[in-house]
């Protein structure tokens, strides 16, 4: 059970993936709404939102894991644990690509 929390375990990757999915959708949504790039979003109050979301989602992900509930046991249909891991990986790459693109472009992507 606690082996899942090691660096190479599924816990950290699943939690980081969930945070990346929320972060990517939020970053794009804010850009579409008011044109702020990712760096401006962070500078204008994004840090407290990031910390709060990170704590909430980490706790929500760790509690079932520590109780022995595995995401694989709750997978059915198109919403599988593998799909969640892949979506999280793509969201992590998307956030990095968004940040690099905005840095090179010098402003918001949209």
From TrEMBL:
Membrane topology according to the record? Multi-pass membrane protein
Pfam families from the xrefs?
A: Chloroa_b-bind
Name any GO cellular component annotation. chloroplast thylakoid membrane
Query: Superkingdom, according to UniProt?
Result: Eukaryota
Q: Where in the cell is it found?
A: Plastid, Chloroplast thylakoid membrane
The record, for InterPro entries, names: Chloroa_b-bind (IPR022796)
Q: Which keywords does this chain's UniProt record carry?
A: Chloroplast, Membrane, Plastid, Thylakoid, Transmembrane, Transmembrane helix
* Family per similarity comment: Belongs to the ELIP/psbS family.
What name does UniProt use for this protein? Early light-induced protein 2
